């Protein structure tokens, strides 16, 4: 293996055509440089320069070696630049269920940024089915989503359990009740969350009780549902994780459906500052009664 300093000596002589000038350019004495060139020639088993009083010229072997020496030197310099550059942050691709409150995700991102973590995070909103498909194809590393029994292959980690509750304006006649009956809401207009993963169960529950809601809004925006409820124009049904104090969340008698929110991962669980913050935000809390 050729020492890097011998390549420097060789290139300096080849470029200046003079041992004295070459020695000055690499900051060594001429005898030191001459000894280095002699050692390089011994290691290569070939004479690299023709020397006389007037000039120093590359031999045919020296000319061939010059091409490779320049390439090796360039690669070496490139490696030094790469090592000196800041390391690229690791990237964690996280799929986020579109029915998880935006405020919760915002708080996680704010804390992650405050930590000045070396970890880069890429978030992707999606439906429950979309996130599982992307996880299966390796398009995301982890999904923050509803956990189902058939998700066992993704090593589910349940973080929270949330009841689905009726969302009422603060001045609604039933807002102070501990629970409400489906029949008591028959005259209210509903803001329908069309993207809700529990929509079939909710529709079935009300239909079985003879309640066919009239709608004031059909949307895929949770914030729009909450805005309608705050305005007093309608009511809705949402997981209790959306509770923010501006509206009233009241349980519906006999509606026992609970959603489990957690992490699904397709590969080996990565160490992640972001996921640690997610776990703290949800607090491993069991919100079911």
Automatic annotation (TrEMBL):
**Ranges for the HTH lysR-type domain?**
2-59
In terms of InterPro entries, this protein maps to:
LysR_HTH_N (IPR000847), LysR_subst-bd (IPR005119), WH-like_DNA-bd_sf (IPR036388), WH_DNA-bd_sf (IPR036390)
**What GO molecular function annotations does the UniProt record carry, in alphabetical order?**
DNA binding; DNA-binding transcription factor activity
Q: Which residues form the signal peptide?
A: none
Recorded superkingdom: Bacteria
Q: Which CDD domains match?
A: PBP2_LTTR_substrate (cd05466)
Gene3D superfamilies for the chain = 3.40.190.290, Winged helix-like DNA-binding domain superfamily/Winged helix DNA-binding domain
Q: Which GO terms describe its cellular component?
A: protein-DNA complex
UniProtKB keywords = DNA-binding, Transcription, Transcription regulation
Task: State the similarity comment.
Answer: Belongs to the LysR transcriptional regulatory family.
- The name on file for this protein is Transcriptional regulator
User: From which organism does this entry originate?
Assistant: Novosphingobium lindaniclasticum LE124
